[in-house]
Amino acid sequence: MTFQLSIDTEDNQISLKINNFRPENSELIQVRLKEVTELLHEIVASDDAASGLTSDELTRLQPGLAALELKYKILIHQATQQAATARSIAEGRDTISQHGFPELDDV
Length: 107
Prior knowledge:
With 107 residues, the protein is α+β, with helices and mostly antiparallel strands. 58% of the residues lie in helices and 13% in strands.
């Protein structure tokens, strides 16, 4: 069974949908969503706060805001790579020893 992620946009509302997942994974999916919700909330809140700045304020703060945005984009990329690695291990295409933890490998 292959799950599907989709984003629906209507006027002033954006929704994330997850379809066709294994029913036994429902609680885990909810936990995962809660884990990333705080991150998404802070990113959107930061964008919202920045959009309310005057032109002078934005000019003064832009270099620092851009540096922080780059930093969290790098961290998001790294987290995505780690999740892909976990998937690869779960699917049997990699082992944990291939990723620096030979003591945890049961193969």
